[in-house]
Amino acid sequence: MNTIKEQDIIDSIAGACQYISYYHPEDFVKGMVEAYEKEESEAAKNAIAQILINSKMCAMGHRPLCQDTGSVNIFIKVGLNAKLELSKELEEVLNEGVAKGYTDPDNTLRYSVVSDPAGERKNTKNNTPAVIHYSVDNSDKVEITVAAKGGGSENKSKFTVLNPSDSIYDWVMENVRQMGAGWCPPGILGIGIGGNPEKSMLLAKESLMDHVDIHELKKRGAKNAVEELRLRLYEDINKIGIGAQGLGGLTTVLDVKILDYPCHAASKPVAMIPNCAATRHIHFELDGKGAAKFEKPDLDIWPDLEIPMDSVKRVNIEDLTKENLSQFKSGDTLLLSGKILTARDAAHKKIVEYKAAGKALPNNLDLKDRFIYYVGPVDPVRDEKVGPAGPTTSTRMDKFTKEMMEIGILGMIGKAERKQPTIDLIKEYKSTYLIATGGAAYLISQSIKDAKVVAFEEMGMEAIYEFEVKDMPVTVAVDTEGVSIHTTGPQKWNSI
After folding, report:
1. According to the 3-state scheme, what is the secondary structure of 44-79?
2. CATH code at 257?
3. Residues 480, 481, 486, 491, Cα dihedral to 10°
4. 321 and 457 share a domain?
5. 121, exposed or middle or buried, with CB in 10 Å at 0-12, 13-18, 19+?
6. pLDDT digits (tens, 9 = 90+) for 427-466
7. pTM of structure
């Protein structure tokens, strides 16, 4: 019997973390290509094109698909007959592999995991610990699935315990409508049914690791109630018209995956977890013959696409004022050039605290008449000015918007919809909200020509940066009149 060595486990986990950071699963790419080809909404088609262009660039350049390189989920099945050679606990070995993968100097990944989650929330500096799920079988091998899950999609997870007679279909449809675009569609929807509360959540997460096969299912037809539910949800969720990035379109989900488990007769636990446009996972086995080897995908699976430039407006940020922002209408595509500032949750909290205390920001930073980009970039490597730098979910900043408007910011850049009170503030202050494409982080970073930290350097990726951008692609999501494309777009494409 071959011995599965500790270092082989470490190297395999590290290699998997690197691999999934820049390679989409092949089945996901093919699903996105199909969605692009059939999409009729110009805005959604443009967003899918950016995601596919970004995907190919990452495959070629070995840089992250998304700036949120995720928290790591590991599903490990240990054969009871496997011979393992370990000098420490298996959990320590797995986390050592994660740390090695995330700190690789050739492709640094962003550290997003914080410890003391209810208190200090201090970054662990290597993205550990992973969330690890163990199981066993009678084999002499170790099976491992590694997945990286971004915060935007994880935050949209839902759970309930329905009455046995309640409709799972109705619950899912209601929650998808409320979920908005913060999970970065199009992607995969995972559903777990049965067991108990924790089991249904685990089933939903596990289901996301399955292959995209909805079209094969449609072709052969459903054979049981779960497959019937998959097909019905797939068709009807896409009829809602949310579309890519919530812009309105034909494809919101590429597949709906469902796993179920027997449960108590008095209850029906149901969980729902989406996987975003940066879907990342890989499965491998260790049998004592060395570390796992991961095959490079064929670059021919990606089409050669270009972003259409017919209706794009080039904008010099330095020329913008409160008075002339009204020229841009919801749905317009812009290419921004000039200097913008970045700030996420922690920076907004600091800014508001400084404002309340009447204190000047560090380095006398002035936010008046500036655009704020909601982003926590990946650290640069080699000659990069900044690593992948796509937008984070904007609704997390809604609670700070009034104070930011009072400070005098010109506008905001992020992803997904804003809540109605924030839209009302944008209209009141004659501001604007722009969106960049979630899942196109490396593509966006190519438009960033210079980057420097200007405040709160100690907060790492939560620091305030100043970016100098050239032709950064954005869409006007909320204009100065309060018209939101995340309302008008889905309304136009809703067919249910």
Report:
1. HHHHHHHHHHHHHHHHHHCCCCCCCCCEEEEEEEEE
2. 3.30.1330
3. -160
4. yes
5. exposed
6. 999 999 999 999 999 999 999 999 999 999 999 889 999 9
7. 0.94
